[in-house]
Structure prediction request, 482 residues.
Amino acid sequence: MEAASKIFTAYRALGLYADNVPITVRYHHRQKDNFVVSSVGRVYHNMRCSDLVITHISELHPDNIQCVSSDSTFVYTACHHDIRVCLRGKFIRLLKGHVSDVHTLMPFGAHLLSVDANNGMKIWDVKSGEVYSEMDFDPGTFHISAIAHPSSYLNKVLLGSKQGTMQLWNIKSAKLIFSFTGWEEEVTVLEQAPAIDVIAVGHASGLIVLHNIKFDETIIKLHQDWGKVTSIGFRTDGPPIMFSASTVGHIAIWDLEKQKLLNQITNAHSGPVVSVRSIPSEPLFVSSGPDNALRIWIFDLPDGSARLLKHRSGHCSPPNVIRYYDDFGEKILTGGQDSTVRMFSLLNDSLHKCLGTASENRKLAKKRKMRDLYKLGSVTAMACETSRQRDWDSAVTCHAGRSVVTTWDAHIGKLGKYRIEPELEGSSGEWNNLEALCVDISQCGNYCVMGYSSGHVLIHNIQSGQLRGSLGGEQRAHSGAV
Prediction:
């Protein structure tokens, strides 16, 4: 049997940067740079932190990646009950032994710790690929929900549970060292603080506790008002600052010296923030979420809080319409179910643009709290023309269930000047459920032609947004929807 043609083999994916799997940050000693490893479906991206450029993409996994972790040499991924050890994106070793899906991975020197859905923990020898040790826990009394390695604690790991208790284990001897009673709430995050012996414990209720595990003493108690703590990080360049993530898209910044909230980054992501990771010895941290966004924040504001430094983002919902924008095939204009229009470059990720989100009231849409209230429906049709792109808007879109057609300035990369409503004569009740279904732009770039569910076809001038005529005169161009 002849091999299938490779003419339509997938080359690369555009606009994919993050999903609901937490990211990891690694330092490469030879390249002397930090890298972000981000899962995107069945592959992971290795991105340089300095410019967020993808340096390599992993081989294709058999299914979506469930968790990812890394050290300075390898990247570890879990897909169902198998674990893959990757070097520069290539699979070099397959670790098989779990009988259920693996949900947690943690590198531990020359070993790797993994926890599966049946509450079993295995310690792997990465070099040989063999199981070094394994332990099983009763889910009814201690269901593992978080794991951390306390700094300077040789062969020790700290486990957090859904029951709220914590346990310190020696993985070499497989012995329980100490049990912590906890705070009777589900532990969601365990994170080593810059100070030795101090662990930050995040809970499902929003409680954050800094606990000294050497003396079993609570140092600080803080509370996040937005509910579940999804991730915790610390500045490692000096100032005593902690940041925590939530399920509503906000990030809290805490001053540990004054033991109070320093600032908050509202709507850091349009959805849950699944991970925040500090970049070692720099005033930076990285955040990710299932909204397909990866953002780097820098602590350089006068009050000590952070601002957005750089980011990579794509559609948080599938795109409905894709069009080539230029004559050279180097740019793609897309409209998605999230009501946003984006431009992607086939040559360089740094040239990607977000033109904005279509909204009914542009002034109120600039206010973050009002954005979703005035957002139009998903983009259902799109047209673009570059001949007059330097003079006025060069793209138009239709939106689900709406008669309005929105213009866009694709050359500059922003929402256009006009929201074009149909101007039809006759009884007002006839057009109550009117919907714009299709649109096109003339080759000269002066006019846009719009087809409606009523059968009308209208012509508007893009420069002024004014009606210039209709096909069929006062009658409909078609008896049915266009």
Remarks:
- The chain has a mean pLDDT of 88.
- The CA atoms of residues 31 and 284 lie 19 Å apart.
